[in-house]
Amino acid sequence: MEQTTRLKLANQDDLVAVRLGVMNPTDVRRLTVENALVDTGATGLCLPAPLINQLGLTPLRKIQAETANGIVTRTIYSEVEYTVLERSDSIRVTDLPDGMPVLLGHMILEALDLCVDMKKGLIHNPAHDGAWMIKIL
Predict the structure, then answer these.
(1) Is the CB of residue 48 less than 8 Å from the CB of residue 102?
(2) 135 CB neighbour count, 10 Å cutoff
(3) Is 76 helix (H, G, I), strand (E, B) or coil?
(4) Model confidence over 73-84: pLDDT tens digits?
(5) Residue 109 · residue 43 · CB < 8 Å
(6) pLDDT for position 15
(7) Is the pTM of this model over 0.85?
């Protein structure tokens, strides 16, 4: 069963500039994706190129990535702050071809202590009674 969730994104470099007092908070590049696909087979956060451009992310390096269709070259971009179910963290972004859905991988779920319930969808980890716990080992 396919699970989707609401995902809020902000350019991390813009947020740092706001904290340094060199950018107005209203100028931070942000967007909301209403139907990000929760893909436990994916690793991190993968965005199609138009969303990467809208956020103004900077390309950092090329990588080889293993996909269901074989090995492909992808680009890693600068960090975004992401928010899912009112929990936030930051991560570098991997690009996807245009037309692909936003993919939310297992690193996001682990960082935010979320899990997929087949009936309820994406939820806070019930093993922690709704508290946000992270693994540090």
Answers:
(1) yes
(2) 7
(3) strand
(4) 999 999 999 999
(5) no
(6) 98
(7) yes
